[in-house]
Each structure stands twice: as structure tokens, then as C-alpha cells.
Design a protein that fits this description.
36% helix; 10 helices; alpha/beta
Length: 252
């Protein structure tokens, strides 16, 4: 595979906070349309890696390139977002006093303020697009409900829908299954798998049952570096991963 086929490339990236090396010479390559799962123990650097990709913080060294070799380290957060990189944090962030429909409306592509959006009328094309997004995230039947009344899992889906409304090329999703019921977790996995191919998706997750449901390639981080990559079975059988997670070596 040539370098040009990667939509996101991190090479030799390092980041230190007050003497603590959160990211240590990390190189990571993600293909367009891929659904990549990132796992690792607490403190492995997973969230810091997302912060670096989205411009929330800047690396001390290394390169982060997007699509046609755009240098993300030279851009700020809103510029990176406008390129088509959207991020969903672990805790849902929705407009709880507005309806599900309005939350998606506010998130549609194009700059708008809360007031200008809510004081204007929805165009037919906007209504059609909102309907498409709500159907994608299994919330078509909740369009008129206040977002604050949704279950935790439904709020997670709504926030994913708010990202989709921006038509991103890359979705960065942080622990989407946290706090969900088993049924919600399965439905979330189905949702993310249905989006792969149309979008490139990077998922940070701890729930290995959920990881097994959605993952094709799993990347394991440890102490800010790439420990190993492979399928779920390959990663779970790797002695280095067993030692990192369980503090012991695999018995032979």
C-alpha cells in the first residue's frame, strides 16, 4: 500500500506534559473507510492521541497528516473540524432543552448560530437531510422528543448523528459503549459498522465484548507507544498485551 492511500497518518509523534511522556514516538496509519479500534490500559495515551489529531493540543515532535498530506499540526481545532474530522467525547454533549430534530438541525454543515437557526425555517432539503440522519442513528421515532429525555444510549446516538450532520470524513469516537445496556451496546456496534466505508471511524474502547463485535483491526497503545496491531484474536493472544493488562506473562 502506498502512503497516499492513508487518510490519517501519525509518524514519530511525541507529547510530554510536565515531564510525563503521554505519547512516545507513536506512528499510526489509518486507511480511508476503515473502522479502527484503539485499546490500551488507563494512561496509555488514547485520549491524548485524539487531542493531537483534533488540534486540542500540539505534539512536541512528529507529523500528523490528513488525506492529501495536509499538516494537521499547523492548524487549530476549528480548521481541522472543517476539513472533515469530527470528534465525539465519552460524555454526550447535546442541547438537552431542544428536540432531537433541532439538535441535528443545529449541527448541519455550514456556520450558523443557535439563534439564527431556531429563528428561521427548515428548508425542504434540510428536512430531508435531518430525516436521513435520524434514520441512520435509529432516532426517527424520537424527532420531537426533548434530547434531555433520552436514555444515555440514545443521547450517544444523537451525538453521533450530530457529527454525521456535518458530513465528516473521519469520526473519532471515545468509548461509545460506556454506561450502555447490553442491547444499546449491540445497537451502537451495528450503527458504527453501518457507517464504516462511508466514513473512516476510529473508536477508543475498553469493553472487549464490544471491540470483538465491531473490530477488524485493533491497535493497542501502552505508555504512549504502539504495542501491537492485529485482529481481536491476535491481540488478545499476544503475550505483551496479556502482561500489560493483567500484569503477568502468558503461561506456556
Amino acid at each position: 500500500m502506498t502512503r497516499k492511500q492513508f487518510i490519517l497518518s501519525l509518524e514519530g509523534v511525541s507529547k510530554t506534559f510536565d515531564g510525563f511522556k503521554a505519547i512516545n514516538d507513536l506512528s499510526l496509519y489509518v486507511e480511508e473507510g476503515e473502522l479502527r479500534v484503539i485499546i490500551g490500559p488507563n494512561g496509555a495515551g488514547k485520549s491524548t492521541m485524539l487531542d493531537l489529531i483534533t488540534g486540542r493540543t500540539r505534539p512536541d515532535s512528529g507529523t500528523i497528516e490528513f488525506a492529501d498530506k495536509t499538516d494537521l499540526t499547523a492548524l487549530n481545532e476549528y480548521q481541522i473540524n472543517r476539513l472533515g474530522i469530527g470528534r465525539k467525547f465519552q460524555t454526550p454533549s447535546v442541547y438537552v432543552d431542544h428536540t432531537v430534530f433541532e439538535n441535528i438541525w443545529l449541527s448541519l454543515e455550514g456556520s450558523r448560530s443557535l439563534w439564527s437557526c431556531l429563528s428561521s425555517r427548515v428548508t425542504p432539503s434540510q428536512r430531508e437531510r435531518i430525516g436521513q440522519v435520524l434514520k441512520q442513528v435509529n432516532l426517527a421515532g424520537k424527532a420531537t422528543a426533548k434530547a434531555g429525555m433520552l436514555s444515555h444510549g440514545q443521547k450517544q446516538w444523537l451525538e453521533i448523528g450530530m457529527l454525521l450532520a456535518q458530513n465528516p470524513k473521519v469520526l473519532l469516537v471515545d468509548e461509545p459503549a460506556a454506561g450502555m445496556t447490553d442491547e444499546e451496546t449491540i445497537r451502537t456496534g451495528d450503527l458504527l459498522m453501518s457507517l464504516a466505508g462511508k466514513h473512516t471511524i476510529i473508536v477508543i474502547e475498553h469493553d472487549m465484548v464490544f471491540v470483538r463485535q465491531i473490530a477488524r483491526t485493533v491497535t493497542v497503545l501502552h505508555q504512549g507507544s504502539l504495542l501491537c496491531e492485529g485482529t481481536v484474536d491476535e491481540v488478545q493472544a499476544d503475550e505483551r498485551v496479556i502482561e500489560v493488562y493483567l500484569g503477568r506473562k502468558k503461561k506456556t
